[in-house]
C-alpha cells in the first residue's frame, strides 16, 4: 500500500490506536509508515494528517457536532475518527475535497458498515459547504464563556487555556495567549544537539538562535545523522539543551565535582550533562525510576565515553540515601508536559486538572530531597517541561518556605542567557523569582521552566 490512500490509512490506524489503546502517535507512526512502505512524501502526508487531526480534535469535534446535529459522544468511536480525519483534510489541508470525503467515507464504511459510510458522507458534505473561517465562527458562537471560545477555536481544553494565561500573566504577557495557543498547533521543526567535545555542528546545518550546540537540518533524515554519529549528534529540543546547559555552565566546573541527574529517563539531558561533565572533570550519576526508561538512559549514555552509573530508584529515596553529597543535581521532574504540546499531539486531551495535585506533591518531594543531597554550595536545577505555575513557581516557593535561609535562589534567567548565542529576552517574573521561562511562540522551544537553587 502506498500513495495518498496509504497515507490516510496509516493516519487513521494511528489515530485509532491513540484513542483505543492510549498509544503515543510519535512512537507508533514511524513503525506504521515503515510497514506501509510509504515514500518520503507520503510519510510526510501521513504525519501531517495524524498530528493535525489529533491536535485539532477539540475544534473538529465541535464542528462535527454542529454538522451532524448530535454530540460526538453519540458517534461510534472508529467512525468519529474517520470523520475527524476527513474534516482535517477539508478545513486544514490542500487535499482535494472529493478525495478527502470519499476516502474518509470508505474508512467509516469499513469501520461501521454502510450506514456509517452514509453518515460520514452527509457530515463531510455539510462541512465542505462552509469555509474554515465560517466554521470557526459557528463554533465560537456555541461557547458559553470567553475561555471556552478560545479553547474551541484553538483546540485546547479550557483548563489549559487558563493555566497558560496565568503563566503568561506572571511575566506581564497575558496578551500573548493566542499566539502561544497557535504555536502549539504548528508542527515544530526537528532540532538537534551536537554533544560538546564529541561532535561538531555539521557544515550544512542551520544554527538556531540560542543554544550554542543546536542546529537544524535543511534536508535529510535526522535519524541517519544520529546513527551515523553514534548518538553524538542527537534530536533534542533547544529548550531542553538550554535547561541542561544552565546547570552545567552556571559556574565553572571544579575538577572532581559530583553530579546527579535524578529523573533521567529517557536520557536526553543525561547525555548532554555527561558530555559537559567529561570536559570539566565532573563525575555524573543518573537515576530513573522506570526500568525501561533507565535502559534508554544507558543507551543514550553510550555516545559519551566514561562510566555513568544509572540507578533505578524512586528519586526521593535515591537522594535521601546520599545526604550532603552532590555539587550539582538536575531535577527534570515528571510533570503535565503542557510545554511540549506541539510535539505530543494527543497530550492535551490526556491530562486533566485532576493530575496536577499528585504531580506537584511529587515534584516538591523530589526537589526537597535533591536539596538535601546537595553539599553546602551545591546547586539544584529544577526543570519542568510545563509552564503551569502550580508545577513551577509554586513548587519553588514551597521549597523556599521549607528550607528558609538554608537555600538561595540564583538567577536562572542570567544562567540561561549566558549560555545563549543571542539574548533570548527572558522576562522577569512578577513573583520576583529568578525563574527562566521559555516559550514556543517566542523562542520556538518547548515551554521549559528552569529554577536554580543553591544550598548554603
Ligand atoms: C521529564 S522526564 C525526564 C526527561 C529527561 N531528563 C530527558 O531529558 O530525557 C521525568 C522522568 O522522571 C521519571 N520519574 C517519575 N517519577 C519519578 C520518581 N519518583 N523518581 C525518579 N524518577 C521519576 C519519569 O519516569 C520520567 O522518565
Bound molecules: S-adenosylmethionine
The best one-word shape is globular
Ends distance: 63 Å
What number is the mean pLDDT? 97
Number of helices: 21
Tally of distinct domains: 3
Q: Approximately what portion of the residues adopt beta-strand conformation? A: 5-15%
CATH domain class name of the largest domain: Alpha Beta
CATH topology of the largest domain: Rossmann fold
> What is the fourth-level CATH superfamily of the largest domain?
Vaccinia Virus protein VP39
Radius of gyration: 23 Å
Uncertain stretches: none
Please identify the structural class as seen in this structure: alpha/beta
Any guess at the CATH architecture of the largest domain? 3-Layer(aba) Sandwich
Into which percent range does the helicity of residues fall? Answer: 40-55%
Please describe the biggest sheet, giving its number of strands, its sense, and whether it closes into a barrel.
8 strands, mixed
Number of strands: 12
Description:
The protein is 52% helix and 12% strand. The protein has 456 residues and is of the alpha/beta class. Strands 5, 6, 7, 8, 9, 10, 11 and 12 form an eight-stranded mixed sheet that branches. The protein has a four-stranded antiparallel sheet with strand order 2-3-1-4, with helices on one face. The termini are far apart. The model has no long low-confidence stretch (mean pLDDT 97). Bound molecules: S-adenosylmethionine. S-adenosylmethionine is lined by residues 240, 263-269, 287-290, 293, 314-316, 332, 334, 362, 385. S-adenosylmethionine binds next to helix 14 and helix 16.
Amino acid at each position: 500500500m502506498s500513495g495518498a490512500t496509504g497515507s490516510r490509512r496509516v493516519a487513521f490506524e494511528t489515530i485509532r490506536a491513540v484513542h483505543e489503546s492510549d498509544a503515543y502517535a510519535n512512537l507508533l507512526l514511524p513503525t506504521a509508515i515503515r510497514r506501509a512502505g510509504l515514500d518520503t512524501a507520503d510519510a510526510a502526508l501521513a504525519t501531517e494528517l495524524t498530528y493535525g487531526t489529533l491536535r485539532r480534535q477539540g475544534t473538529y469535534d465541535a464542528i462535527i457536532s454542529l454538522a451532524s446535529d448530535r454530540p460526538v459522544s453519540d458517534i461510534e468511536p472508529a467512525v468519529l475518527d474517520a470523520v475527524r480525519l476527513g474534516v482535517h483534510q477539508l478545513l486544514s489541508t490542500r487535499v482535494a475535497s472529493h478525495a478527502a470525503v470519499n476516502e474518509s467515507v470508505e474508512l467509516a464504511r469499513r469501520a461501521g458498515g454502510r450506514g456509517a459510510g452514509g453518515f460520514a458522507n452527509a457530515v463531510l458534505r455539510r462541512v465542505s459547504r462552509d469555509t474554515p473561517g465560517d466554521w470557526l465562527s459557528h463554533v465560537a458562537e456555541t461557547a458559553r464563556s470567553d475561555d471556552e471560545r478560545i479553547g474551541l477555536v484553538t483546540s485546547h481544553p479550557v483548563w489549559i487555556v487558563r493555566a497558560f494565561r496565568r503563566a503568561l500573566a506572571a511575566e506581564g504577557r497575558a496578551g500573548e495567549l493566542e499566539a502561544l495557543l497557535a504555536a502549539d498547533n504548528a508542527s515544530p521543526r526537528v532540532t538537534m544537539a551536537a554533544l560538546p567535545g564529541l561532535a561538531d555542528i555539521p557544515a550544512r546545518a542551520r544554527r538556531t538562535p540560542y543554544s550554542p550546540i543546536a542546529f537544524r537540518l535543511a534536508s535529510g533524515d535526522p535519524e541517519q545523522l544520529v546513527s551515523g554519529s553514534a548518538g553524538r549528534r542527537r534530536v533534542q529540543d533547544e529548550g531542553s539543551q538550554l535547561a541542561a546547559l544552565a546547570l552545567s555552565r552556571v559556574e565553572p566546573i571544579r575538577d572532581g565535582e559530583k553530579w546527579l541527574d535524578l529523573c533521567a529517563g529517557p536520557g536526553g539531558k543525561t547525555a548532554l550533562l555527561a558530555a559537559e561533565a567529561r570536559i570539566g572533570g565532573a563525575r555524573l550519576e543518573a537515576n530513573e525510576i522506570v526500568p525501561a526508561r533507565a535502559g534508554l538512559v544507558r543507551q543514550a549514555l553510550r555516545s559519551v565515553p566514561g562510566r555513568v552509573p544509572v540507578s533505578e530508584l524512586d528519586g526521593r529515596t535515591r537522594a535521601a540515601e546520599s545526604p550532603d553529597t552532590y555539587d550539582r543535581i538536575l531535577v527534570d521532574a515528571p510533570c503535565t508536559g503542557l510545554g511540549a504540546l506541539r510535539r505530543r499531539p494527543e497530550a492535551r486531551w490526556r491530562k486533566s486538572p485532576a493530575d496536577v495535585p499528585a504531580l506537584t506533591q511529587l515534584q516538591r518531594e523530589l526537589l526537597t530531597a535533591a536539596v538535601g543531597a546537595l553539599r553546602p554550595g551545591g546547586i539544584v536545577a529544577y526543570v519542568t517541561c510545563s509552564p503551569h505555575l502550580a508545577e513551577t513557581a509554586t513548587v519553588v516557593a514551597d521549597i523556599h518556605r521549607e528550607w528558609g535561609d538554608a537555600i538561595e535562589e540564583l538567577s536562572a534567567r542570567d544562567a540561561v542567557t549566558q549560555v545563549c548565542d543571542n539574548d533570548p529576552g527572558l522576562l522577569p517574573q512578577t513573583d520576583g523569582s529568578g525563574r527562566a521561562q521559555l516559550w514556543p511562540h517566542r523562542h520556538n522551544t518547548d515551554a521549559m521552566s528552569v529554577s536554580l537553587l543553591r544550598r548554603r
